[in-house]
Design a protein that fits this description.
Layout (H helix, E strand, L loop, with lengths): L11 E5 L2 E8 L2 E8 L8 E4 L13 H22 L5 H19 L15 E7 L2 E8 L10
Antiparallel strand pairs: 1-2, 2-3, 3-4, 5-6
Helix pairs in contact: 1-2
């Protein structure tokens, strides 16, 4: 499945030492993307909105909390591997803290980025009634983002 991600349209980003947490849209879905700031050959780790509930380590129910902790431990190991950092307890705890602190903001993001248009217009659309202009709007071309397949 191709990945569609345009970091120029990111909603927000925060730097956490050698990791950047970017709140953006991946394949038109709200997501948190963790990027390495130093290691150029490392990968990215993505947490989509649909998986946010699995990271709820502050759940009140004991079973839900233990499931979330097990999930966070497993996924933090994968994230460390993807980001090219040592999967030590400290680094895994950092990943879990970044994800759990940022996911509430991801859930409050708009469902889609606002469209960006090229400068200028290519024409004008006018609505007329009985020969008189009632409304009008400029015709603008939407800027295309990068797509990776």
């Amino acid at each position: 499945m191709p990945l569609e991600l345009d970091l120029r349209k990111a909603h927000q980003s925060r730097v956490h030492g050698d990791i950047v947490a970017v709140q953006t849209w991946v394949n038109d879905v709200r997501a948190l993307v963790l990027l390495p700031t130093i290691r150029k050959d490392a990968g990215w780790y993505i947490v989509e909105e649909s998986a946010a509930y699995r990271w709820n380590i502050n759940a009140i129910d004991g079973r839900e909390r233990s499931d979330a902790l097990a999930h966070a431990d497993q996924q933090s190991r994968i994230a460390c591997q993807m980001l090219g950092i040592e999967p030590s307890l400290r680094n895994r705890a950092r990943i879990v803290n970044i994800v759990t602190d940022t996911l509430p903001d991801v859930l409050r993001m708009p469902s889609a980025p606002l469209p960006e248009y090229l400068k200028g217009s290519v024409g004008q659309m006018i609505l007329k009634a009985d020969g008189k202009a009632v409304a009008g709007e400029d015709i603008r071309i939407e800027r295309e983002g990068a797509q990776y397949a």
